Amino acid sequence: MSQPADGLPPLRDVIERHGIDARRTLGQNFLLDFNLIEKVARSAGSLDGLTVLEIGPGPGGLTRALLSLGADRVVAVERDRRCLPALAEIGEVHPGRLDIIEGDALTMHPGEIAKGGRLAIVANLPYNIGTQLLVQWLSGEEWPPAYESLTLMFQREVAERIVAEPGSRAYGRLGVLVGWRMHAEICFDLPPQAFSPPPKVTSSVVHLVPRERPDPCRFADLERVTQAAFGQRRKMLRQSLKPLGGQAYLEAAGIDPTRRAETLSIAEFCTLARTLESRTTRS
Ligand code: SAM
């Protein structure tokens, strides 16, 4: 797709006409090449019958691709009001298919956007809140969640932590929380020059699909355990998990207290989370 057949101007013209010079405080690194933008949108799979929640549409390149590739509806949440007139022009050429919400994505709940229909989340995320948003979307009490998939751009280093396996250097709290509830894969990388302005590092598109039946445990317990364990990742668990009960706690969970956090599988972390729950509800 060199340019969607929507009759709208190239993105450089849109940005210039609406004065959307990129602001670092809003994590603005815009994608301008429609071939790459289409590749990001296609990583979400078929969009037929789906409402897409897009976080941070900016001047609307990805929004245009999602609509052209057949999403039923796009709900675009943008904090920068300078982008709104450009987005309104996209809405005019796709009547009834684009809802623009001016606001902070951190305050939005996918369930309220889905309204019981099928939802996917697709975004070139602002890097400063990307991890926070992902963890928020993972943390809901209801599972499976309101969305069918997440297709998100992260810094490569964050993407590696998202898909990390036990024993690897990148394995930590994020990899456990994600791997517990999601299947996650890195689709492809984008070099800094793909963006305007170019960020300092390589970016990656990650596709995540909720697991139907994750190992049962509570998000808050898993978060507490992983935070303590990886907070002192070089230490033995009996030391790093001392605030949660140390040796006795690990023995109750059937985990060797001399092991280190990065050697534990996600299933073992879930066992620790369940043991924590039973010990805290007992006391
Ligand atoms: N989607 C566009 C693209 O691919 O070129 C822009 C992506 S840019 C990396 C991130 C976008 O998120 C910016 O448009 C920025 O204004 C917006 N943004 C930043 N913080 C936000 C927040 N808390 N809620 C919603 N949008 C936000």
Automatic annotation (TrEMBL):
What are the annotated GO cellular component locations? Answer: cytosol
Which InterPro entries does the entry link to? KsgA/Erm, rRNA_Ade_diMease-like_C, rRNA_Ade_Mease_Trfase_CS, rRNA_Ade_methylase_Trfase_N, rRNA_adenine_dimethylase, SAM-dependent_MTases_sf
Alphabetically sorted, this entry's keywords are: Cytoplasm, Methyltransferase, RNA-binding, rRNA processing, S-adenosyl-L-methionine, Transferase
**Enzyme Commission designation:** 2.1.1.182
Provide the reaction this enzyme catalyses.
adenosine(1518)/adenosine(1519) in 16S rRNA + 4 S-adenosyl-L-methionine = N(6)-dimethyladenosine(1518)/N(6)-dimethyladenosine(1519) in 16S rRNA + 4 S-adenosyl-L-homocysteine + 4 H(+)
Instruction: Give any GO molecular function from the UniProt entry.
Output: 16S rRNA (adenine(1518)-N(6)/adenine(1519)-N(6))-dimethyltransferase activity
This protein's major location comes to: cytoplasm
The record's subcellular locations are: Cytoplasm
Q: Is Transcription regulation set as a keyword in this record?
A: no
- The record places domain Ribosomal RNA adenine methylase transferase N-terminal at 36-212
SUPFAM superfamilies recorded: S-adenosyl-L-methionine-dependent methyltransferases
Annotated S-adenosyl-L-methionine binding sites: N29, L31, G56, E78, D104, N124
Q: Which PROSITE patterns match?
A: RRNA_A_DIMETH (PS01131), SAM_RNA_A_N6_MT (PS51689)
Which Pfam family, an example, fits this chain?
RrnaAD
Describe the family membership recorded for this protein in Swiss-Prot or TrEMBL: Belongs to the class I-like SAM-binding methyltransferase superfamily. rRNA adenine N(6)-methyltransferase family. RsmA subfamily.
Q: What does this protein do?
A: Specifically dimethylates two adjacent adenosines (A1518 and A1519) in the loop of a conserved hairpin near the 3'-end of 16S rRNA in the 30S particle. May play a critical role in biogenesis of 30S subunits.
Its recorded name reads Ribosomal RNA small subunit methyltransferase A
This protein's species is Pararhizobium mangrovi
Q: What is the lineage of its organism?
A: Bacteria, Pseudomonadati, Pseudomonadota, Alphaproteobacteria, Hyphomicrobiales
